Amino acid sequence: MTRIVVISAGTSIPSSSRLLGERLGEATAAAVTAAGGQPQVTQVELRTLAVELAHHLATRVPGTRLREAFDLVREADGVIAVTPVFNGSYSGLFKLFFDALDENVMRDRPVLLAATGGTARHSLVVEHAMLPLFYYLKARVAAHPVFAATKDWGSASGKLERRIARAAQAFAPLVMAGAPAGDDEFEVVDFTDLLGG
Amino acid sequence: MQLGIFSVGDITQDPTTGRTPSEHERILAAVAIAKKAEEIGLDVFATGEHHNPPFHPSSPTTLLGFIAAQTSRILLSTATTLITTNDPVKIAEDYAVLQHLAEGRVDLMMGRGNTGPVYPWFGKDIRDGIGLAIENYALLRRLWREDVVNWEGKFRTPLQGFTLAPRPLDGVPPFVWHGSIRSPEIAEQAAYYGDGFFHNNIFWNMSHTKRMVNLYRRRFEHHGHGPADTAIVGLGGQFFMRRNSQDAIAEFRPYFDVAPVYGYGPSLEEFMAETPLTVGSPQQVLERTLSFTREVGHYQRQLFLVDHAGLPLKTVLEQLDLLGEILPELRKGFAEGRPAHIPEAPTHASLVAARAAQDAGEEAEPAAPAAVDDVTGRSPYPVAEAVEVAR
Q1: Taking CB atoms and an 8 Å limit, are B266 and A185 in contact across chains?
Q2: Are strands B81-82 and B75-78 parallel, antiparallel or unpaired?
Q3: How many structural domains are present in chain A?
Q4: What is the pLDDT of residues A151-191, one digit of tens each?
Q5: How many angstroms away from the CA of B250 is the closest CA of chain A?
Q6: Which positions in chain B touch A186 (Cβ < 8 Å)?
Q7: Partner of A86 for a Cys bridge, out of A91, A191, B82, B283, CB 3.0 to 4.6 A?
Q8: What confidence score (pLDDT) does residue B388 get?
Q9: Spatial distance between the Cα atoms of A85 and B127, rounded to a whole number of angstroms
Q10: What gap in Å lies between CA B20 and CA A7, rounded to an integer?
Q11: Chain B: residue nearest A187 by CA?
Q12: Residues A49-71, buried b or exposed e (16+ Cβ, 10 A)?
């Protein structure tokens, strides 16, 4: 089983971030299947966790559904992270989620970055805003991120389709190589090593 | 099973009256609450340690010493003693004196402390938190167990020919718990030494608490202290009781909503579902508390947080009266189905007895008096070689 989790931070209904996340999830699943894997894609819409995230920020107490989302990420072989562009960057809600994750959860975990925005003028937001965040988190970022402007959804040329397919092709091998084992049990360093240390 | 209370020592405005108690009032209230705890039959009173407002307990042994003088039975403890920023030599001295004055009614819970600036204020670096907790505690153990300590570490001035005065009461150091919420290293430390592990779960879901406790239990067995179910476990807890559960909720909600740490967060109902907090009737508190055993197994110490968030002293004392009423039922419930091989938490008396039993097996040697001649100040070095590491 290859577990892919799509985290989307769109706030409208329907949301183009959610839509892009779905398309990327499907394309990745298809690429994984083609390579002989058994993909399982789960969607997490941060809009539904906004209140629990705010509570967590203020109190550090994670609600039930937020904890479930953390567990999904912790067990994921790959994460597709999609944000709308707000004021030239990822949205606050998007950052809130990755701030709330336990330290090191994203370390070495394959990530496909994607963003949606009103016009193509925002298209470098992935490189300029999202990439530094995931570089800091030490995630294994796939080489082909996707940006979709509003216009792309009505474009007949199939360009978005091709970008999605190319991103999935680049992401699938990382996902199939897998992420570090989920730390279902805490990692223990023997105390004699800690004493020496 | 030890049942008791622990206090953070926060000085918080009462949101229902707008009145903030003075430091003086809160310090005296801590004494009144500890005495009340003994009166209703609780086993443990533990105080926090903080070095910044709005908290008062910066000098726990002064507070506990004063309480010791006015009580006769209750065990005095900490929640927690900052093993990172305190000098382990001073901890060894302070708690040894307290142990003598309290006739052994003392144990400690080590913690790292999570207030960033306290580290630099005491000349430490928060990034060394785990390292400090490990090194300082290793030294503290030696100070309490060896007559002459020669020591060198990373964080503190070396010691040559140092003898702790006074020696621990009856040559038996206080029992130590290690409190940690989410650091596996600390659970491992507690397991390594066969010390107690306390999970202050009051802000955490039981599933997390269970994972941490299981880790400690597993490693306790790994390090050869006995089966996992005989490890020494303590838990936190939090309640607000009135005879009628709706009255409890109505009275507590304004305190909850703006409380330090969890105020302005989840609703009272959500928080009750997610954490051990129980606001309701005495029967509800009883049932919820007894349910903890199902999660973490039979354990040894249950401490409740009762004086916080601006609750007035009168209310806190009423809460303790109500706790006193369900105490027999709590004890009965905890005893139910508890296998005979599950130990109680060690006390001074049990540790002295264990030491005597151990000594009876070996060549009887009377508890050594101080290895230093305190009249002449004779050098301790000649005897240093004879001192065994008492681990």
Answers
A1: no
A2: unpaired
A3: 1
A4: 999 887 789 999 999 999 999 999 999 877 655 556 778 88
A5: 22
A6: 184, 187, 211-212, 215
A7: A91
A8: 47
A9: 35
A10: 45
A11: B184
A12: bbebbebbeebebbbeebbebbe
- Residue B184: which of A67, A187, A192 has the nearest Cβ? A187
- B266: nearest CB among A61, A186, A187: A61
Give pLDDT tens digits along chain B (391 positions): 999 999 999 999 999 999 999 999 999 999 999 999 999 999 999 999 999 999 999 999 999 999 999 999 999 999 999 999 999 999 999 999 999 999 999 999 999 988 889 999 999 999 999 999 999 999 999 999 999 999 999 999 999 999 999 999 999 999 999 999 888 999 999 999 999 999 998 888 888 899 999 999 999 999 999 999 999 999 999 999 999 999 999 999 999 999 988 888 889 998 999 899 999 999 999 999 999 999 999 999 999 999 999 999 999 999 999 999 999 999 999 999 999 999 999 999 999 999 999 988 876 555 554 455 555 555 444 444 444 444 4
Q: Is the complex ipTM higher than 0.85?
A: no
Distance to chain B for A31, nearest Cα, Å: 36
Half-sphere exposure of B101 (CA within 13 A, CB side): 18
Query: Is the CB of B223 less than 8 angstroms away from the CB of A195?
Result: no
Judged by CB atoms closer than 8 Å, whether chains meet at A189 and B185 is answered as yes
Interface test with B, best of A52, A56, A61 (most B CBs within 10 A): A61
Contact between residue B137 and residue B189 where contact means Cβ atoms under 8 Å apart = yes
Check which CATH number belongs to the domain holding A151 and give it. 3.40.50.360
Find residues 138-197 of chain A whose CB sits inside 8 Å of chain B.
Answer: 185-192, 194-195, 197
Beta-bridge partner residues of B19: B14
Which residues are CB-contacts of B308 (< 8 A; sequence separation ≥ 6)?
B7, B8, B10, B12, B259, B260
Average pLDDT, chain B: 92
- Look up the domain containing A145 and give its range: 2-196
Question: Hey, where are the domains in chain B?
Answer: 2-384
User: B2-384: CATH homologous superfamily?
Assistant: Luciferase-like domain (3.20.20.30)
Q: What does the alpha-carbon distance between residue A163 and residue B102 come to, in Å, rounded to a whole number?
A: 74
- Among A58, A190, A192, the residue with its CB nearest the CB of B265 is A58
Residue of chain A nearest B187, judged by CA positions: A188
